[in-house]
Alanine--glyoxylate aminotransferase family protein
Amino acid sequence: MKYYHPLLLTPGPTPVPEQILHATQEPMVGHRSSDFETIAEEAFRALKPIFGAQNDVMILTSSGTSSLEASMLNIANPEDDIVIIVSGAFGNRFKQIAETYYDNVHIFEVEWGEAVNVPDFIDFLKSLNTTVTAVYSQYCETSTAVVHPINELGHALKTYDESIYFVVDGVSCIGAVDVDLQRDQIDVLISGSQKAIMLPPGLAFVAYNDRAKERFSQVTTPRFYLDLNKYLKSLADHSTPFTPNVSLFRGVNAYAKLVEEEGFEQVIARHYAIRDGLREALKALDLDLLVKDEFASPTVTALIPKSKDELNFIKKELKDRFSITIAGGQGHLKGEILRIGHMGQISPFDILQVVSALEILLSEFRNESYIGKAITQYMEVVKAYV
Ligand SMILES: Cc1ncc(COP(=O)(O)O)c(C=O)c1O
């Protein structure tokens, strides 16, 4: 067998840096001890700049979906009207959660692979002719690799009706984008540990402004584990309401140190440089891209192979021969697209591995030489960053 260094390029989980792994393996401490309070206080605070939040960020010991659910149960009362932008599998996740608890759920469908058109969305809100309590959107819709125009959406929403709560699922991009709750008019911004924050799976994060915090305390929808008031009360004491994943909290602090060393602006710039380089490389391989440049995610890229056979060949051979794991499509895009994740601890040169492997595989599959073609395009873009 020929050896290739394994490379995990799925849009989560992502490779976990050694420094984080080490931190997560330190000896256990009691979660009701001052040892943990020190860890927790640091972790709640360390996430603030990553989320562009003024308040300490809540940390739940559960996967990202729990923060989606918490963002509904703590913002919307049972009789409220809520609106969900569905542009892919994770918009559908919001929809499924909403339909589990609420009767007045309005769905704004966006074609998969497209970003929300803000004026059309505001027209949709107007057409509902009802008072809407909250609007839910993905920031990056991971299943299509689209980034929605969140700042434009936030401002348009608040201009339309400033009482609407704007809730954003940033599970697959927080840690790789420039976001600011105040500037972008977001009330609640949620995320998970296993994507650009490059931790193992198992934590969910909730950032919120003061207005949302107030709302959490007024909402009457039944909830227990996901009652954010419990987390807020504990957070003030540098603690958590239930047994936390102590190891991953340590991981959060190790993550924050890595970001500090690199500089958050550099972290973001690296993600965009990789995105831009990879898109040019894929074009040089005569592969179509699902998403227009304007709305392309800095954390995941969706490509369309020329046929199902080509798609299966690429995915299987990358894994079997080159130890590179990428993702397929979800929902009706399953079997239609492939997704390359490039977030967290991914260097521009890591992506050269997948680009060069694709050159070899497509040269074989199409019986046409691509050797050197995609790498050249990739480096032409990435050299400005390097
Ligand atoms: C945008 C988005 N939202 C929510 C989730 C769900 O997170 P989890 O699988 O951690 O529950 C994911 C996971 O891929 C995601 O990408």
User: Anything to note?
Assistant: The chain has a mean pLDDT of 98. Residues 140 and 147 are 4 Å apart (CA to CA). The first strand starts at residue 7 and ends at 8. The chain has 15 helices and 15 strands.
